[in-house]
Amino acid sequence: MTTEVATKAALMIEDLRVAIEGKEILHGVDLAVRKGEVHALMGPNGSGKSTLASTLMGHPRYEITGGRVLLNGEDLAELSADERAKKGLFLAFQYPVAVPGVTMVNFLRLAVNGVRGQDVPVAQFRKQLLETMKLLSMDESFARRYVNEGFSGGEKKRAEILQMALLKPQVAVLDETDSGLDIDALKIVANGVNRLLGPDLGVLVITHYQRLLNYIQPHFVHVMVDGRIVRSGGSELALELEAEGYDGIAGKNGSGKEQ
Amino acid sequence: MAETMEMAVNLDYEQKWGFSDPEQYVYKAEKGLSPEVVIALSRMKGEPDWMLDFRLKALSIFRAKPLPTWGADLSTIDFDEIYYYLRATERQGDTWEDVPEYIKNTFDRLGIPDAERKFLAGVSAQYESEVVYHSIREDLTKKGVIFLDTDTAFKEHPEFFKEYFGKVVPPADNKFAALNSAVWSGGSFIYVPPGVKVDIPLQAYFRINAKNMGQFERTLIICDEGSFVHYIEGCTAPVYSSDSLHSAVVEIIVKKDARCRYTTIQNWSNNVYNLVTKRTVAYQDAIMEWVDGNLGSKVTMKYPSVYLMEPGARGDILSVAFAGKGQHQDAGGKVVHAAPHTSSTIVSKSISKDGGRTTYRGLLKVYPGCDDVRSNVRCDALLLDEHSRSDTYPYIEIEEERVNIGHEASVSKVGEEQLFYLMSRGLSENEATTMIINGFIEPFTKELPMEYAVELNRLIALQMEGSVG
Fold first, then answer.
1. What's the rounded mean pLDDT across residues A130-158?
2. Number of other residues whose CB lies within 10 A of the CB of residue B371
3. What is the pLDDT of residues B404-424, one digit of tens each?
4. Nearest-CA neighbor of A234 among A255, A215, A216, A220?
5. Which ipTM did the prediction report?
6. Are residues B142 and B269 in the same domain?
7. Residue B359 lies in a domain
8. Cα–Cα nearest to B223, from B286, B309, B169, B162
9. Lowest mean pLDDT, pick from A144-158, A185-199, B237-251
10. What's B30's DSSP letter?
11. B298 and B436 part of one domain
């Protein structure tokens, strides 16, 4: 890693080691995401992808035992999840949790105010919310439903992207955003993400399957196996994976740290 | 660190809700309870002999009955240290201008005039033992609706009292009903004539302001045939170092085809014993709805009840209890199905934090011969930490086979995953916890008028402040 990359990267992960209840899951992960870039992190189940996602966002159960994570040059280790969100980090959850009795509109308003550190006028917020929901093919009634309660798989993922759109992060981590989606829902979600892409946003797409990458084109692809990134490359790596499977890629191990 | 936070919270509470004015009283009874005190009180009020007899009989019942031991711990109440009657001003004000300045100051800080302007038909704000301010919309008066403090109502409309007073909750019902019957003062009286629907909620604000001050208000509501009324009772109280006792009795009669809703938000300071008997008798096709929220007090024991006396009657009890450090909320509901084709629901939500304790205590009773009874009981408890406690005592006595009874109970904790999810969206831990709690009690909040829902959410946010650490 050069200093230049380190200073320019919005998200900088350096030799990150993470343990849950004393058991190390990530054994030294390096990754740099600059603004304007889309990175895909692929890997089989249990390889540590979601552990990385939760750790980045600051889940209290994941303990950083080595290395560090920088967001715009600032070490995240001591920051709680809400502080990370305020600094421009976003995680689209693989399994968004339900919060019964809390309407989407109330939740989103508090979230937007929290992240921006100021109260957005109600009218302005409403307009923004309705416009964004329209882009994601969400009915207006959606805003009055309780957060993730009784949502279908597709509705949950759309709701995650809705939040991403409203919170306007600098770095977004999408954890298995494609899981549980049929092809139509996948297209809607991918279109939603694509609309948000641009020079001010860095994205890390975590996925098990290559399918999502047909719709969200990554600039870089990384393969994680057993808590390490074993291969990194361009978008063609995803196709190679599709053809050879993770076993094939893992077989070419040892080249993990080469770029 | 934890101690400093605690102090900060108390200070905040005192500033925002626990403010107290210097005591200014025209008359102050002696501490403690005796026949002499009861006689003096009754004479002061100029009551007829039958009420004095009623009070004295109730006093002897109170003295004869042991303290109940089946619920919360009441052993630290010192009955000799309590003032049983106090009158803040000589006369009542009819308009806002007539209300003394220092009392206005208190109400201003509670936002009463605002609330009144917005949607209230009448305000009956209780300051100490007697109602000092009372107003009612003229058109209600024209329709024959009576909304008065109970003392005035007793003077002006004794016929209602002879017929109903002490009939729904007789003095012998329990020790604290007896105490209230002996020394009652203030409270609200409402009479709604046949067919009259009161379209705006009627409200009274209760407040205890004196050290060691007992408040024993007595409320009587009569909904005549086909009528409707929504009565709202909201309480806040100043913080004092010694214990206060609040023991009210509420009696409601809902006649054929009438409907009554009674909404309470109780937020006594954390040294108040709040021991209240609330009961309704509902007749043919009548509907009674208790909406009962308990946030404050040291100990609350309150089980709003409905006696369904005739076919088609319905009773709904919706309650929320919030117990923080040193608090025990022993609350629930009671429905007695004394007629066939009657229905009821009891929904109870409780939240415990910082070692607070909530108890759901409910009774569902169906008498023999009462077939086609439908009832559903649901109680959910939310624990915010490991030291807090929740218990459920859902007594069900069914003496009839052809009934449809459902009962569900759940206990849950604020989930780590819920917190993480909300925090990842920029909400602080407090904001996230508050949001989860507000969601949990939403079935309750949505039944409240907007202002009250907002106030309740604000009170909970206040309770949550500084609780992390």
1. 92
2. 12
3. 999 988 888 888 899 999 999
4. A220
5. 0.93
6. yes
7. no
8. B286
9. B237-251
10. P
11. no
A57 in contact with B, Cβ within 8 Å: yes
DSSP code for B372: S
Q: Name the one residue in this structure whose structure tokens are 């300071």.
A: B269
Of the candidates A215, A243, A248, A213, which has an alpha carbon nearest to the alpha carbon of residue A41? A213
Q: Are B103 and B88 in contact (CB under 8 A)?
A: yes
**Residue B445 belongs to domain spanning:** 420-469
> Residue A136: CB partners within 8 Å, gap ≥ 6?
A158, A161, A162, A165, A188, A189, A192
Q: How confident is the model at residue B85 (pLDDT cuts 50, 70, 90)?
A: confident
**Is the Cβ pair A111, B425 closer than 8 Å?**
yes
**B265 domain-assigned:** yes
Across the interface, whether the CB atoms of B426 and A114 are under 8 A apart is answered: yes
Determine, yes or no, domain membership for B3: no
DSSP symbols for B160-217? HHHHHTTTSS-GGG-HHHHHHHHH----EEEEE-TT-B--S-EEEEEE--STTB-B--
- Which of B420, B440, B448, B464 has the most A C-beta neighbours within 10 Å, making it the best mutation to test the interface with A? B420
Q: In what order do the strands lie in the sheet with A228-233?
A: A89-92, A171-175, A202-207, A38-42, A220-225, A228-233
In chain A, the residue whose alpha carbon lies closest to the alpha carbon of B416 is: A60
The last residue of one of the domains, among B252, B283, B302, is B302
φ, ψ of residue B26 to 5 degrees: the values are: -75, -40
Contact B421 A167 (CB under 8 A): no
Q: Give the per-residue pLDDT at B132.
A: 44
pLDDT surpasses 50 at B218:
yes
Q: How far is CA A27 from CA A19, A23, A106, in A?
A: 9, 11, 40
- What is the CATH code for A3-93+169-251? 3.40.50.300
Name the amino acid, one letter, at A33.
Answer: V
Q: A181 and A212 in contact (C-beta within 8 Å)?
A: no
B75: exposed, middle or buried (Cβ count in 10 Å: 0-12, 13-18, 19+): exposed
Helices (H) and strands (E) in chain B, counts: 13, 23
Torsion angle of alpha carbons B160, B161, B164, B168, nearest 10°?
140
Cβ of residue A46 closer than 8 Å to a chain B Cβ: no
Distance from the A81 Cα atom to the nearest Cα atom in chain B, whole angstroms: 5
Same domain, B111 and B243: yes
Closest residue in B to A147 (Cα) is B439
CA distance A8 to chain B (A): 24
Q: Each residue of B107-153: pLDDT tens digit? A: 555 554 444 433 333 344 444 444 544 556 677 888 999 988 898 89
Spell out a b/e string for A164-190, using b for 16 or more CB atoms within 10 Å of the CB, else e. bbbbebbbbbbbbbbeebeeebbebbb
**What percentage of chain B reaches a pLDDT higher than 70?**
77
**Helices A122-135 & A104-116, crossing angle to 10 degrees?**
110
- Check if the beta carbon of residue A147 is closer than 8 Å to that of residue A98: yes
Distance CA A238, CA A218 (A): 9
- Across the interface, of A93, A97, A102, the residue whose CB is closest to B438 is A102
B138: exposed, middle or buried (Cβ count in 10 Å: 0-12, 13-18, 19+): exposed
- As for how many domains chain B has, the answer is 2
Residue B180 lies in a domain: yes
